[in-house]
Amino acid sequence: MGATGTGKSTFVNLASGSKLPVGRGLQSCTSDVMTSKPFILNGNIVTLIDTPGFDDTNRSDTEILRSIAAYLSNTYEQGAKLAGIIYMHRISDTRVGGTSSRNFRIFRELCGETTLRNVLIVSPELGEERERELASSSKFFKPILDKGARMLRHTNTRESAHAILRHLVNAQAHTLQIQHELVNEQRDLAHTSAGVELGRLLKDQAERHEEELKEVRREMEEAMRAKDEESRKELQQAVDEKLSEIESIRQNAARMAADFAAEKARLETRIADMEEAHREHLRNLEEHARRERELIDARDEAEKRANDLERKLERASSERNSRKPRSRAQYRRTREAIIDLPQTRKNNTMHGDPLTQGANQGKKRTRRRSLNLSFPALPALGGLYGDSEGQTGAKGCNNL
């Protein structure tokens, strides 16, 4: 989505290999919702939806909203959800305001707050200063960036388009706010959030035209007093144009919901035709997508094993490095202590070392206790090994 001339159709063609018509300059070319031919990306079959901008040179903003809303409600009723939304920002929009601001405000109401994590703001390389300005402006991108949307650069190549789409291709699909309002809540288009926002914008636009009309009429009265017939005719023409624009705005606002059913039926037929045109191509892609997913899974598993092995090697290397080797002096002192140990024990015994004597006495006491405990039990074992009185058993045990 985005204003006219932002490169939406060019992006779709680059990513998918489609041949959708592309406009030149600010002249609209995409006057209806169109879909790309399906293509494979990261093992997934992807279809891109190209939409006209709300400043279309051939259709009113009301007609554009009606077409987009009808398409989204049709696909949602068929069980399809969008994995993501890309908002294209025009490089020539050096200031925040005018048609860009109007496009973006309606875009926000179409999406709703809960789907902003699936929104990408895409623009050509504007320069770091300009990007910071857009990202920090509360009137433009900052509110949605704070809620999870992301801002990316597009270098107008197929690789760049695919890199952008990879941010969304595995995202969890969400229901857009306008889909929920139209299908689940059964609102008419004029009472959806996007419809209310567009109605308010149209009202503001009509009021500005009326102010301009008052100014033109004042100038025309001055020309009549000055008897400047040529100026009076030019001003009268300007008055007629303003009146026509005001009437058109009011009619568009009034007809927003009236023609929605007819547009929905028209697009339902168009969607069926587009799906039929891509059906054979889609069948061929499914097998390729399955094989690509298997290759991706195998690659991921191999990378996981390699990472695990690398971590084990790093841990083993770290443990080996942490073991400090003994110095020669430490080794010599340890060896001397081992050699001198028997002599030290002998000296301690000869000089009556209390610790050594206590240990020896403890051993004797332990030995005597074990003898006293063993002898009474010997006759009892005779029944198992000899006669009933235990004679042979006791003798056998004594021999042992």
Molecular structure report:
The chain is mainly alpha-helical and 400 residues long. The chain is built from 14 helices and seven strands. A three-stranded parallel sheet has the order 5-6-7, covered by helices on one side. Strand 2 and strand 3 (44-46) form a beta hairpin. It is elongated. The termini are far apart.
Radius of gyration: 43 Å
Distance between the termini: 100 Å
Helical content band: 55-70%
- The helix/strand series, from N terminus to C terminus, equals HEEEEHEHEHHEHHHHHHHHH
Q: Uncertain runs with pLDDT below 50, 5 residues or more?
A: 362-400
Which structural class best describes the helix and strand composition?
A: mainly alpha
Silhouette: elongated
How big a fraction of the residues is strand? 5-15%
Q: In total, how many beta strands?
A: 7
Kindly report the average pLDDT value.
76
- The quaternary structure here is single chain
| Main sheet characteristics | 3 strands, parallel
Biggest β-sheet: strands ordered side by side in the sheet: 5-6-7
Number of helices: 14
